[in-house]
Structures are given as structure tokens and as C-alpha cells.
Amino acid sequence: MTDTSDRGVLPAHGSLAVYPGTFDPFTLGHRDLVSRARVMFDRVIVLLAVSADKQPTAEATARADFRYEYQLAAMNEQLGMQTVWLPPRPHLAATSSTAIRAYRMAKSAPPLPGGRE
After folding, report:
1. What pTM did the predictor assign?
2. Is 28 within 8 Å of 95 (Cβ atoms)?
3. From CA 15, how far away is CA 26, in angstroms rounded?
4. What is the pLDDT of residues 97-108, one digit of tens each?
């Protein structure tokens, strides 16, 4: 359990949360959000989502990302589902899936001509 459980937060009986995302790759920040959600809900389903509109290697600005999440929340509301947004913890927010992919690509790239890296 996380430190949230120490504050007496208990999940609502029979509650369910779905955490969809492309998770390309699944990071420590994603894992932390799942752990925090498990304190709030009886069941947490991590749903690997695929979107034709979203290119996993494309970088989005924080404002555009929030706008997209807000649009999804509005759509969920129309379908009768409540959206709960958990912000990442500050020490984990800087490590994004995009940054990890960029690091992996740079690490696997062949060395530059002349021996420089």
C-alpha cells in the first residue's frame, strides 16, 4: 500500500477503475498511479489502448495533453461514467514514456563517423 492508506482512505465497496493508456513503455509513474488508484478502488483494470490518432513517439505539450484528457472526460460523462484524474507525483512526472523511448533510440543508434558519440 502507499502512504495514502495511512490516512484512512478506503475504497468504495464494489468500485472499479479503468486506467487506459498506450503505456509505451509502462513507467514507474504509471505504476505509482496504479498503486494510488488501488487504494481508492476495489478493482483497477489497466487497459492497453491503441489509437490510430495517437502516434506513441510524438511529443505532446502538457496543455494539449490536458485538453485531450478533458475531452475524454466530457465524453465519458455523456456515457454516464465518472473520470478521476490523478496527477503524477512531482518526482516521477519528469520521466515520460517519450523520454524513455528517446533514450533507448539514442542508446541503440550506431556511433557517429570518426569515433565521436
Report:
1. 0.68
2. yes
3. 24
4. 777 888 888 888
Residue where the block lists cell 513507467: 27
pLDDT of residue 60: 52
Q: Can you read off the three cell numbers belonging to residue 64?
A: 494539449
State the Cα–Cα distance between residues 37 and 39, nearest whole angstrom.
5
CA distance readout (Å), 15 to 4, 23, 39, 58: 17, 23, 11, 34
What is the identity of the amino acid at 40?
M
pLDDT the model gives residue 8: 67
Cell numbers found for residue 66? 490536458
Residue % of the chain over a pLDDT of 70: 79
